[in-house]
From TrEMBL:
The organism of origin for this protein: Zobellia galactanivorans (strain DSM 12802 / CCUG 47099 / CIP 106680 / NCIMB 13871 / Dsij)
Record's keyword terms, sorted: Acyltransferase, Transferase
Transmembrane regions: none
InterPro entries found in the cross-reference section: Acyl_CoA_acyltransferase, GNAT_dom
One GO MF term: acyltransferase activity, transferring groups other than amino-acyl groups
Protein name: GCN5-related N-acetyltransferase
Ranges in a coiled coil: none
EC assignment: 2.3.1.-
Amino acid sequence: MLSLVGEHVSLRALEPEDLDFLYELENNPEIWEISGTVTPYSKHVLKLYLDNAYRDIYDVKQLRLCICNQDDLAIGFIDLFDFDPKNGRAGVGIVVLDKGDRNKGIGSEALQLLCDYAFGTLALHQLYANVMEGNDASIHLFKKMGFKEVGLKKDWIFSEGGYKNEILFQKINA
């Protein structure tokens, strides 16, 4: 896949060299709540994942791209998941690992590149995102990028001894 290049970030396919970054991100307990992970991943398992990352979105129904800064260093991931070409939709997930890289427009630019790819190249009709209530940065990001709040899933995520609501956002390609 050719890199999707913006002014400050680019999106590219996963490479074997991303193993250490993927290991750090996937084993960060602060991210587990949004990723649905409850246990650490071994480097071996993540290497197997990277070995299969070349598989086509039409086959595996998901696509993970690396968000890179201007120096081509991996700073996060952006995903399409639950890819449904028949109904023209997919879910979107995004994470920027280092808190120092957040709130600088990286997420907005990466999400715009992904939307352009999903709507242009994949010809999707809509994208959606699930955001936990209280995740103000993600709520702001998706609203800023034209996603509309369309639903609330009550008591959807069990975390920290209690249940949290999840907001459903949707963006329809007009």
